[in-house]
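Hey L., structure's done. Input below.
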Amino acid sequence: NGDMFDGFHAKYPAIPTIGSECCSCRTQRGEDVNNSSGKVFGNFNGDCLQGQTGVEMSRTFVSGILVWTLFDYYGEPSPYGWPHVSSSFGSLDLAGFPKAGAYYYRTWWLLNSTNMSASEHDVVTRAPTLLGVQHPDASGPSRRLAEDGAEFMVHIVEHWQRDVGGPSRAVHAYTNAPMAELLVNGKSYGQVHVPWISYAAWEKVTYADGNMTVIGLNAAGQAVASHTVLTAGTGTRLALSLDAPSVAGGTGSHLVLDGHDTALVRASIVDGNGQVVLESGANVTFVITSGPGRVIGVGNGDPMCHEPNTVSWRSSYHGLVRAIIKVTEHQATSELEYYRLMHIDAEGNRKTRIRAPSEVESADDSITVEASVTLGGKVQTASLVIPVSTD
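Output:
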């Protein structure tokens, strides 16, 4: 708490201070409503994040904050215990999919804005890329560079589904714009002020199928960013995408054939408009149809899922499934390293093929992954090509 920082600084004013374990704010991806009887955490935690980060960020003598934790992790299922098998503190879930809290940090920590600082804090001049984070909706958050160099962003926390949240519900949006306006099917629910390191909120929003949009406004009342969430229909197809490797995410453009490199494949259950179907729990199966790769793990981010992790199938959680693909060849090596590896290889050169440079005529240039799911009684498939390289 703040008293602890103030007391320490008063006693030791010359000693640098940092918040080394902050922001254990529990959430579950895709859950719009807290349900203690069902042991479910809601996805909104802006009040918790604002309160905990504000302790450090409002004190100029505190140099920074370390967030605990980035990922959910197995063990420490607090406070519910079973059937939870993991923590729920992370900004990303067990499968590496971002929760809403990841966008809180993006808006206030990674984007520079004119209202970033309440007490003359230093701020970044250019926002770095947020690694591994992609919005699951077709109409993801927009980011716009203002004329003064400030960059703004909006992210709506809740989804817009009839059966989730009731006929009248609260809506929250993470934004670093000083004002925000909520529109539901074109009807305005008013503009609200967004305090420093806070969020926009509207109570008693009447549900109606269609679209929900939040517009970020600058001090002059001009639109500087927006995010729209649509009501999803029935799941009709499967979409595959690659979260890593990713040039945008800083993980390169290819997998390296070093016997170890892995890819993060995202499978999404979508409707006819490409919108992720948040209510889908359909089972997705993955198979390698060509190239030097194998499925070594799967996940969906659900802290109450007890399905095995080291198989090639997984049920979706709010429309998403993760597959982890590992290369099965080691070609990026010298002759000396090759002979040493062959002496210690516990797999007997079966699961991962170790190839001497003299044996490599031309490296396979890709791995092809195919996924399948049954939707509406019909099997839907999708495929994805993962580039590989020896360097």
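The longest strand covers residues 378-389. The longest helix spans residues 46-57.

-- N.
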